[in-house]
Specification:
Elements lengths: L1 H33 L16 E4 L7 E5 L4 E6 L19 H6 L3 E6 L4 E4 L1 E3 L7 E8 L8 E11 L1 H4 L10 E11 L4 E8 L7 E8 L2 E6 L7 H8 L6 E8 L11 E10 L2 E6 L5 E6 L4 E7 L8 E8 L7 E4 L12 E7 L17 E8 L11 E9 L7 E8 L10 E8 L5 E7 L1
């Protein structure tokens, strides 16, 4: 009887295993690939002189290219970075004191000299814990003369930490800061702070105009086991992209004159967002499922919605996307494509707060293959541009390409790949073959 019972129990277990494998086998396999559970160590070989360490760029989560001024803009935490003591996007709330003292900064890199400089923040006070940013040309000025800077700020919430704070209140009160910068100057003038109930766990920004932007919320749960489940369970499609509009003159409170609505929902681990191939296209990333989604906003609607037109899957976690528009393209040679940074062994991310833990990095380029017809879907060439064990650039979160004139490289197609890292001591630039 016992043997029959054991056989039945075994048969039941085998049956359940078969059902689970059939239903969840593919997602589990993809999770193993994306989180790098079986990924070995591998470093891209770089020739002497083809890797430049850019000083003064500590813990920069995001980077953007302003082509008219040949400048790169980064959001960095500075020499006294609180990243391992206070960073809500990784559920790090170890030191409220460090959070309140945080003074993030914008860094500007001159792509001709590869030197960086900080911008002094004018009319701004209080904590500044940076995350995603965007750079928008000032339409009221000649091209290349001035820009707006949009930045996520994860400051502590007094409703939780204050003298009369409640443990039920959120630990962070994430807002968006808007600045104005005249190209070539050493300052960025703070224009206003923006808060809205739909800005919950903001990650990255895509500026639409001087008074409107898209913001991604990357988690539904702010901390705890349910938050971890969101990362691991690909069907936890609980995050969204929000459109925010604001009145630049009504600054009586952070919420004054601010309106918002959801443009894209039911997303898994919504994360980085950036510009696409056209003015109306934007790229948004599902980080933990390794997917780049290309979307467009509906036109002329009072509350426009977004439509996802294409999905590109890559074999690691992904973060902030950028689009490289090849400035030296020809009809037969176009190197344009989306550039995305990610983690080589993301399954160790819980150790990121430890000073001796190093996260490896990967940078991808996704390019549509020419020859699409009305009856065939777009296929994508996916190329690993750079891989590192974390000794040169740990925890890569953003990357972009600045093209090099082929005349300077003997006709060869090359570019400088700039990579920033959430926990990196410095950003780096690597010369690559396009």
């Amino acid at each position: 009887m016992s043997s029959i019972f054991s056989f039945r129990r075994m048969a039941t277990a085998v049956g359940l295993t078969a059902i689970l494998a059939y239903q969840y086998g593919a997602p589990i396999h993809r999770g193993v690939v994306i989180f790098g559970l079986l990924r070995g160590a591998s470093n891209t070989v770089v020739a002497d002189g083809d890797l430049v360490v850019i000083e003064g760029t500590k813990h920069c989560e995001d980077i953007h290219h302003h082509e008219p001024s040949q400048s790169l803009f980064l959001a960095c935490e500075g020499a006294n970075s609180p990243r391992r003591d206070w960073f809500p996007p990784l559920s790090i709330y170890t030191s409220i004191e460090r959070g309140n003292e945080a003074q993030a900064e914008f860094r500007v890199i001159d792509t001709t000299t590869m030197k960086s400089k900080p911008l002094n923040l004018v009319d701004f006070s209080g904590p500044f814990i940076s995350h995603g940013i965007d750079v928008l040309e000032d339409p009221q000025q000649p091209l290349g003369k001035a820009v707006y800077l949009f930045a996520v700020n994860h400051k502590p919430d007094a409703a939780h930490w204050g003298p009369n704070g409640s443990p039920e209140a959120n630990k962070s009160r994430s807002v968006i800061e808007v600045f104005h910068h005249v190209i070539g100057s050493n300052t960025a003038e703070h224009l206003r702070t923006i808060w809205h109930p739909l800005i919950r766990t903001p990650n990255d920004i895509h500026a639409l105009s001087p008074t409107s932007f898209l913001i991604t919320n990357d988690h539904y749960h702010r901390e705890g086991p349910k938050r971890a489940l969101e990362d691991l369970y690909f069907y936890a499609q609980w995050t969204e992209t929000v459109r925010i509009e604001f009145d630049p003159k009504d600054k009586s409170t952070d919420a004054a004159g601010v309106r918002g609505h959801v443009v894209l929902d039911n997303m898994h681990n919504n994360n980085g967002i950036g510009r696409g191939r056209t003015d109306n296209e934007f790229a948004v990333v599902s980080a933990a499922s390794g997917r780049l989604r290309l979307a467009t906003l509906s036109a002329a609607d009072a509350e426009p919605k977004a439509v996802i037109n294409e999905v590109v899957s890559l074999d690691s976690t992904l973060d902030n996307p950028s689009y490289f528009a090849d400035p030296y393209y020809t009809a037969t040679d176009d190197k344009s494509g989306f550039v995305l940074a990610g983690l080589r062994n993301a399954y160790t991310i819980e150790k990121a707060r430890e000073h001796d833990h190093v996260m490896g990095s990967m940078v991808w380029k996704a390019t549509p293959v020419p020859g699409k017809t009305a009856d065939s879907p777009v296929t994508w060439e996916k190329r690993l541009l750079f891989e590192d064990d974390g000794q040169r650039i740990p925890f890569a979160t953003a990357a972009l390409i600045v093209g090099i004139d082929p005349k300077k490289e003997g006709g060869k197609r090359k570019g400088w790949l700039y990579i920033t890292g959430l926990m990196a001591e410095n950003a780096v630039a690597v010369k690559i073959d396009l």
